[in-house]
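Lecture notes, unit on protein representations.

Consider one protein chain, 557 amino acids long.
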Amino acid sequence: MGDSVQTDREQELATATLESMGDGVIRTDAAGRIDYMNPAAERLTGWSLAEAKGCDLSEIYRVISETHRRPRQNVVEMCLAEGRPFSPPGLFALMARDGNEYTIRDTISPLAPAGPSTMHGVVVVFRDLTHMRTAERELVFQASHDPLTGLLNRKNFERYLVAAIESARNRSALHALLHLELMELTLVNDCYGRVAGDEMLRQVAVFLERELGESAILGRVGGSDFHILLERGSLEQAVEVAEELGRRLNLFRFTWGGQHFEVGFHIGVVGVDGSRSHVTQVLEDVESASHLARQSGRNKIHVFDAERDGADDRFSRRNWIQRIRRSLAEDGFRLYQQQIDSLGDGPPLHEILVRMTGPEEDLVPPDRFIPLVESHEMAPLLDRWVIRKSLEILSSGEILDNRAVTLNLSGQSLGDEIFLEHLADMVAAAGVPADRLYFEITETHAVANLSRALDFMGALRNMGCRFVLDDFGTGFSSFGYLKNLPVDILKIDGQFVRDLDHDPIARAMVASINEIAHLMGLETIAEWVEDQAALEIVQDMGVDYVQGYFLHKPLPL
């Protein structure tokens, strides 16, 4: 009697232990039919003991390979055949009754270890590792993907590119790489904060995934830079993809704070074939193509050509940077001036421009080197050189007959307090009357650094200098911020002036800008006046000054 009571108590303790376990436990008879499940097993399988009792284990405990997604061999048969406990290597997926999937690792043990002939069934003990596996996958994902957009990061993207290069070299496959750079990210960050810039990047990433689908491998490889790998396609097909993507990006609008913004871009395209053996070469080529697209203008595409773009090291970004630094150190730049004619009684202005000399003293236009100067944070150095040389020439009193000049300032200089101190010292030391000096700043840079721009402009205006607001009409703000900026002249963006003769909207915009500027007591300059028709139109509108190749081409200062 005592032995029976003790046995019952031991069974109760054993059952209580099983019921409290976090691991799932399922027991079967020798035929593989379930006769016990603890609560953890019920929860994970989705079957209650009452429902599962008498069912074959394979019906309730449905396990497949997590990697290959194939059902596993019957565990009861394996255990009965071997007569010993075993733990299948690796992780498995338990397919629950309700459709949920759990990552598990399990052990299957015989009930009677004396030998197969005396076994009464098996016990399956399985542990839920789903949360651990999810965290592990998340860590792997974070290590290989950009956390902001969810696209591949640079390191992981380059693995795909390496594989593409190898397949091109070994199997003569054709691929293509695109480099897409957004133009407005810095401006959005400065105007509305990094939260807005991050949201723009996320929206563009979603747009790219939607437009390109599974036909491309996407990666975010820099602040505003994206790489797109097009596998198994010719260069001609890649160009078609780039052109279609460009058309759709032209229609894309980023919305923030109730305002809708265009997203400017430029795209470089390079073929990935057997001629390119290293990932560094491919990346340098596509970045060179992107740089050349940027030089061509807004929303442009450039296809890299090895004979045209690669043979001449002038297209090497690295070589350009070295040449710019050398020109700054050795006075390798040249000053030019272009006259800005008055349509009234006032004297003309003269805009001072900068050119760089090439290897054979040929002149390099600014659109070739200015983007690199800005992207490598060298704009204040170039601005300082231009202003210092200009003041030296103007202080001699032999050039421009004491007329007023306009000097361009970059957005980087506008926010640089040290630059402002140097500029004020240079103006004071030169002895040139401050009211002869007009500093040109672009609308977008002024608005992007509004508080700094106001301090900067205020300090120079106190000395007697004046300001021209360049490229007016193309930024995010236009008239909204104009009343806060202490400017004297608005330079109407040449894109509108160029189209005056055939675009009624351009005419309306130029007329509106000119009228409102005059209401605010400001003068106006129409730039890019390239023919007689444009000259007559702006003259009829009452614009104060005109500038363009039709009137005067830049000449050495």
